[in-house]
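re: ur question from earlier - yeah i can do the single chain one, its not a big deal. heres the input i used so u can compare w yours
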Amino acid sequence: MTHAARAVWDRGDYGPLADLLAPGATVLADTAAPTRADRVLDLAAGHGAVAEIVARRGTPVTAVDVSPVMVAAGRARTADLPVTWLEADLAAVPLDDDAADVALSNFGLIFTVEAAPALAEVRRLLRPGGTLAYTAWDPEGVVGRMGAVMAEFMPAPPDGAPKRFHGSVWTTGEALRDAGFTDVTVTGRTLPWRFDSPADLTTFFRHHSPAHMASEVAAGERAADMFAAIGRVFAPDGGAVDVEASYVVVTARA
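and the output i got, formated as tokens:
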């Protein structure tokens, strides 16, 4: 699974998409509010937006991502900060039990292929009473609807990609409770997405979103139709894209 996941997440120039999602990292850091004494994990860290914010506030962070391309970019981004990077599958992180007090993930944990083993691993890594906080797309919001549209054009998810990109398994709390978490809270938020046209939006995805790149390959000759359908989700009238992409901040206690 690790090799297949790397093949997905090593694609494209992720930096602009990381910037688009960065406000969620600030929300996570503010929500969890780790102290300087806390041991913090940034899971599916990407370019390390969460790690950077927490580390700049004085708390060391261990950032974990499956993609060597992401890890290299994250190391460069946080070179002057107390951030340690690990290249690892989230279902098998090479750290001891109870290694962390706080685990954070900004639109990353939700892309694991299977929720249960990933959450079991996070539960193992957190000390009893430790905090998990992550962001996830609202299945009923514009990004969630986009995920449903994409699924219609793919005979099966590409290797290493989740079975549904933005499934409700991450927003209901049931999977967390099954994995041994308590005190689950779900808070709605939005991110502003602005593009001059649907074509500009889909071009952005095709260059900067590894998930969309993998889906384009899986869709094959239907890829153009898929991206046209994505454009209609965001701008049904074909005009400028001006949406509030709804997501949730989920917190739970180990």
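The longest helix spans residues 15-32. not sure if urs matches, ping me
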